[in-house]
Amino acid sequence: MKRWIAFWNIFVKDLRAYYLKPPNISWGLIFPLAWTGMFFIKSGGLKDVLSLVPGVVSLSILFGTTSLLSVTVTFEKKGRSFDRLLLAPIPLELLMLAKTSGAILFGVVNAFVPILMAAFLTDLSQVAWRAAIPAIVLIATSSTFLGLFVAVSVSEVFEAQTFSNFFRFPMVFLCGLFFPIEQLPAFLRYLSYLFPLTYGADILHGAFHGEHLMAFSTDFTALSFFCVALFLISLRNIGRRWIM
Amino acid sequence: MNDAAAIAIAVDGLSKRFGEVQAVSDLSVEVTEGELFGFLGPNGAGKTTTINMLTGLARPSAGKIRIGGIDCTENPKAAQHLTGVVPDESNLYPELTGFQNLSFCAALYGIRKKERETRARVLLDTFSLSDAGDRKFAGYSKGMKRKLTIAAGIIHQPEILFLDEPTTGIDVASARQIRQLIADLNRSGTTIFLTTHYIEEAERLCGRIAFIVKGRIVRIDTVADLVQPIQDAHVMQLAVSNAEPTLQDKLTAAFPHLRFQVPAPDLIRVEADEPVHVGPLVRFIEDQGIDVIEARRMRPSLEDVFVQITGIEANAMKKEKEKAGGPQ
Predict the structure, then answer these.
(1) What's the gap in Å between the CA of B107 and the closest CA on chain A?
(2) Residue B29's domain spans which residues?
(3) ipTM for the complex?
(4) In chain A, which residues have their Cβ closer than 8 Å to the Cβ of B58?
(5) pTM higher than 0.90 for the full model?
(6) For position B60, which CATH number holds?
(7) Residues B251-298: pLDDT tens digits?
């Protein structure tokens, strides 16, 4: 029980201190809006909203979670307030789950901004929500853990942003949102399967307009694998780099 | 040390290496329950590294650590429920108020809301911060930050408290209040492991003191036993108008049975194994054209012992004080 009191308070503190701050709320609204606008312009109007939503949702989650988590954790580590958490009698796994839960929730909320906008423009009754919602949660989780991996790998806040882009931009262009994976050159196609967003975007494409490359079971298994792997690697790196 | 007393902190052969740098070497020490133990040394001596290893923020390269009887060498989390830590820099959350910071720190130890809010209010009152409780930590003065950081370190009522340089860089009044609070905490039964580079602070507060230099403990003893060997020495300080650079050599030549130091142009320090006859000394100095303003017999201090044992001059420590953030 004591550990869950700690977990809940870390989660709530982060929500209040970072995620519910006006600049971040506006980021959560403006960013998906900008993506949506860009996609609409690219596709030439409102012809096929359902095919645009997976891309906008994926990018909103990816950029929202990785940016905020990597910056907030790096900021706390640099200011040494993160040491306070490391000194508390909470297992490291639970502590990091508490630190990342706020970002996961932020990512999920971000995902529903473009979905809400799409609801005004098209009929969403045919969307397979039972696949879409778990996919959104898993995309948010894997992206958050990617942000954690970045935060543990750098020591300055500006490095966190730069290093995040090292992963984010290849992922954006190779995950099948801009160019169909099957049309990519062979070596880039293999590379695209190394990114968690490829599987998340594939589920969303399937859920929103029925076209997907892989079976949902494959996508969910791969996404779950990335979540677990990124979390465990980050924990190991925290042990190595922060508890020296 | 009382053998019958339970051991709160036991460290055996503790070492820490960062690449080529040996930060701590073969450190062994035992602190009994209820003791206020001082860890005294200059900057870079290994004090903070030692605390980091004892509290789980650093892994030892070698050695064993037991906190409250629990072996923490492999699992530093095992005894964290027993300990409180006040780091050398105030590291609370700038965006939270004083009250929110204390309440959050209590929550990290699993204390329920009602209880932690009560404790936070009591501590704000104890540390004279009640009026600032609703202000953000970022807006606190240095002294207020230190006090709130100490309050955050004890809100879960730890059995063992690690205090790393608690009065560094704060004003005299706040430092005095913090020392009083540390003494009160210890009187109430908390075992305290205090690192400092302020010799007088260690002398005033601690029962036993370890001198640490370049990562090694060079001496551990009670303040009384540390000072005892030089207790019989006769030390005198003369305040003078303006001592010329060659005065020390002239004095040594004229009074070979006395030992002289001129640490500042307006100060002469005289040491002897027997009482110093002031008359001839004052006359000699005044014959050099220097006015003697005051002569005062000094009690041998821990500072003298520190200088004698470590070879580190008190002036060097004072410079560190200034660098660290001003006078005490």
Answers:
(1) 5
(2) 7-82+158-228
(3) 0.86
(4) 243-244
(5) no
(6) 3.40.50.300
(7) 999 999 998 988 888 899 898 888 888 999 999 999 998 999 999 888
